[in-house]
Amino acid sequence: MDAGLEHLQEDADACPKKSFLGTKCSRAVRETEALLSDLMVDQPLFWLLTASLVGFLLGKRLLGKN
Questions:
Q1: What are φ and ψ of residue 2, in 5° steps?
Q2: How far from chain centre, in Å, is Cα 26?
Q3: Comparing C-alpha atoms, which of 26, 49, 27, 54 is closest to residue 39?
Q4: What is the DSSP string of 11-60?
Q5: Cα(11)–Cα(18) distance, rounded to whole angstroms?
Q6: Distance between CA 33 and CA 27 in Å, rounded?
Q7: Is the pLDDT of residue 26 over 70?
Q8: pLDDT score for 46
Q9: Whole-structure pTM value
């Protein structure tokens, strides 16, 4: 094995919590992405109503009386 590869392999074993945390974060990102994808496909009316409500509240706040 090359000396550079041995060095990388030793560093990889030195910090198991980092790989554990990285795995958990990666899994959370994938699950969040899947959830948003499902919501975009399955719930377009929900997103349309949410965007309308947010737009209404922002418009009311920006264009309303101070």
A1: -65, 150
A2: 9
A3: 49
A4: HHHH-HHHHHHHHHHHHHHHHHHHHHHHHHHH-HHHHHHHHHHHHHHHHH
A5: 11
A6: 10
A7: yes
A8: 82
A9: 0.40
